[in-house]
Amino acid sequence: MVEDIFINKFLADMINLTNTTDTEYGLKDYLSRMFGIENITVKMFDTERFNQSSLEAYISNTKKSYIDNEINEYSAFPELLNYRNNGYSSCLIAPIKVDNRVIGEVNLFSTHPNKFTPDISSLIELSVTLFGLNLYYSSEKKKVERITSYFDASFNSSVPQALVNSAGDILKFNKQFVNLIGSYPEDKKIASAIGVNFSDLYDLTDGKYIQKAIKNGKPVRINSYKIRDSLIHITLIDQSEHELLSSINSAINLQNQFLILILDDKLDIRNFAGSLYDKFNEIHDLLTGKNLNSFVGEANGKLIDESLKNQQSFKSTLQIEFPNKSINGRISIEKCSMGYAAMITNIEKELYAENLDNTLDDFINTTTDMIIKVNEFGYIEDCNDPTVKNLGYPDKSGLIGKEIKSIYYEGDLETFDTNFSFIRKGEPINSISSNMIKRDGDSIPVIYSIRRIDDKSSQKYILIIHSLETKRELQDMESKLHKSDIQAKHFKSASDLKSEFIYDITHELKTPLTNIKGFAKLMKDGEFGQINEDQASYLDTILEESDRLMLIISQVLDAAKLEADKVKLDVREVNLKELYSNPSIKSMEEAAKNKGLSFTWDIAYDVPNIDADLNRLIQVLVNLIGNSIKFTESGGITVKIFKKSRKSVQFEVNDTGIGISDEDKRKIFKKFYQAPKRGLVKPDGTGTGLGLAITKDIVSLHGGKIRFDSKLGKGTKFWFTLPITYKNKASNKA
Question: Which residues form the Histidine kinase domain (predicted)?
Fold first, then answer.
């Protein structure tokens, strides 16, 4: 048992430690010296907790410490094997808890087995608990400091305000508060100052307020904000100015584009009324006391200050950013006895009308149809370039000023006059067939529509005219597209024949190659007589090249089968935790180690079984791991498997190799494309350039997606996701 005197000293040291400026460093240093622990780290979790390891997830979910006094290959969490490989024998992972939430963990690793006895573990967990409490205290302290800073700044504003405790005592107030109530009460009670007690003020929540006349007869609006159960913050709004503004508002019958502001000498808003008043009523306190310049931007604020200083007035059009509302406003400010009076006129509708004219002009100038603008007397005011081009004029000056009827075919004029009489009454005219007269006298078949536009002082008409020659061009284009579609189908058929040919020829190549390999092996084994060392070496070369050729043929055959739609998945339930023991994966691990690379297999503890074709899944992993080995000179390869969501599992293959250039990234999944091996001291042999294309097709057949990320010279990460449940069990043909 740990002696009581040791425990008392430990607690005293920990309490002193929590009062230091760098508690985290002090905690690690103290525990290291006190218990002889070689590796101590503190990790704080992200709020979203993305990409947590299985051990971190365990700590977060259980809120308990994890102790392993004999780290080995049978440890519950695979990530501990990395520490075992680095010489550590025991560990304690303790959660950092704040307000019953796990916000991080302290990781302690020792090279000695059975280091973390119950006594030592309980003391370490106690120290981590104190560390968490210190974090909570620091957070609360900063919160209080922010609130204090807020009130210090708030009490410097022009709004009368005070802090009141549950006994009704005024704890703090500003001079505007005293100026409004007339004199400060001797008993320092809020009831004596404004005639309202603490309990009534405490109940003012959800936007409620009290409006009354205080002892000096001034009408005020009282708002209250609860800081805590025993403390409230109140503000007073002088309503005498509001009553004056309301009278002005009624007298001039403001419409919905005006706002009147009463400002003090510093341009702080004392009150406001007008058309926007109701819309801002719910945020009255957010405007009152704020400076006008804070809503118009720094540059405009300087212009206003300079103009008021020199001329005691200001007039301009500005973009004004009120809380939750932005307007284009015409603003006028004049000096008055109260400070300044400002009127803001919302000119959104004026700008909208101007924009309509501009938009119409833009439409006329950008559309490919003929557009003609006609005045109320039937004469052309403007037209666009397609009109000039289709009617054969050198420029629009030859059309402007002409009567619109003069460019229509004589036989269609009666119908045209009838349509114009309808459009003058406001009825739209749509898709009327007619003929127009070109400059050289030829006619052009068209379909036209007419719309009336009510301008500020007159009526105008817009003719939208579609040339049927354009329609014929579109029909020709459709005919060409149809021919292209037939050609595409022909090419598709040719592509299918090519795939069938490749499939057949590669299949036929496998039989003689198998015979060559088989007889070469028999010869090496001495079935046809004793052979010498040179002959054995030649036969080894034949066998190695046969294996390489067989791999190439298999990849070409796979690619052909995928392209010819002949791949069927043998979907069964796959235990992902057993993948590591697969001979193909083991051979990849052996190949990595033979090249001097590290190989890490990291599978999360909560990974479920999935529906997949095991052989094809192994093929995908071998392709990705094999590429990593091929393009990596030093460092290592890491394979991770974890549950990405409720419906999918993610596989990752990371390496520290030469990376992929931006140019190669666009081609990496193309068939027969081979990335250059720039940067490799000893480049491996070339492949077929089919591995990644086949990998992508296999992942797609499973209903998954594959992605990659790489930086040249810094390594590559390939990852793919597979659904936990295969959706096409009934028919798993590609």
Answer: 504-726
Place of tokens 């990998």: 695
Q: Which pLDDT does position 263 carry in this prediction? A: 82
Secondary structure string (H, E, C) spanning 555-610? HHHHHHHHHCCCCECCCEEECHHHHHHCHHHHHHHHHHHHCCCEEEEEECCCCCCE
Nearest to 157 by CA among 33, 8, 297, 264: 264
Q: How much of the chain, in percent, has pLDDT values that exceed 90?
A: 18
Task: Determine which of 19-28, 89-98, 141-150 has the lowest per-residue pLDDT on average.
Answer: 141-150
Going by C-alpha positions, the residue among 388, 345, 341 that lies closest to residue 364 is 388
Between these two residues, 74 and 4, which has the higher pLDDT value? 74
Do 657 and 634 touch, CB atoms closer than 8 A? no
- Confidence at residue 253, expressed as pLDDT on a 0 to 100 scale: 44
pLDDT over 50 at 687, yes or no: yes
CATH number of 157-238: 3.30.450.20
Does 368-566 match 258-352 at the fold level?
Answer: yes
Q: 258-352, what's its fold?
A: Beta-Lactamase (3.30.450)
Q: Read off the tokens for 647.
A: 């419906």
Is 613:648 a contact under the CB 8 Å cutoff?
A: no
Please give the helix or strand (H or E) that residue 39 lies within, else none: strand 39-44
pTM: 0.33
pLDDT tens by residue, 379-426: 998 888 889 988 999 998 899 999 988 888 888 888 888 888 888 887
Site of tokens 């449940």: 725
Residues constituting the chain: 734
According to the per-residue pLDDT averaged within each range, which of 254-263, 475-484, 708-717 is highest? 708-717
Which CATH architecture is the domain 368-566 placed in?
Answer: 2-Layer Sandwich (3.30)
Nearest to residue 618, comparing CAs of 656, 586, 642? 586
Of the CA atoms within 13 Å of residue 667, those in its CB half-sphere come to: 12
pLDDT tens profile 560-597: 666 656 678 889 999 999 999 998 899 889 989 999 99
Q: What's the CA gap between 403 and 374, in Å, rounded?
A: 9
Q: What is the mean pLDDT of residues 607-621?
A: 92
Tokens representing 541 are 């070369």
Q: How many angstroms separate the CA atoms of 466 and 470, rounded?
A: 8
Kindly give the interhelix angle for 118-154 and 23-35, rounded to the nearest 10 degrees: 170
User: Is pLDDT of 125 > 60?
Assistant: yes
In angstroms, rounded to a whole number, what is the distance separating the alpha carbons of residues 113 and 171? 61
Please give the distance of CA 670 from its chain centroid, rounded to a whole number. 29
DSSP characters for 487-510? Answer: HHHHHHHHHHHHHHHHHHHHHHHH
Nearest to 463 by CA among 475, 445, 451, 471: 451
Portion of the chain with pLDDT greater than 70, in percent:
74
Identify which of 95, 92, 94 has the alpha carbon closest to the alpha carbon of residue 114. Answer: 92
Q: For position 252, what pLDDT does the model report? A: 45
Give the Å distances, CA to CA, from 717 to 440, 639, 656. Answer: 69, 10, 9
Q: Which CATH architecture has domain 1-135?
A: 2-Layer Sandwich (3.30)
Burial of 515 (0-12, 13-18, 19+ CB in 10 A): exposed
Amino acid present at 229: D
Phi/psi at 329 (5° precision): -130, 145
Give residues with Cβ within 8 angstroms of 29, minimum separation 6.
none
| pLDDT of 340 | 83
Per-residue pLDDT averaged across 60-66, rounded? 90
Token output for 503: 């499939």
Beta strand 636-643 with 598-603: parallel, antiparallel or unpaired?
Answer: parallel
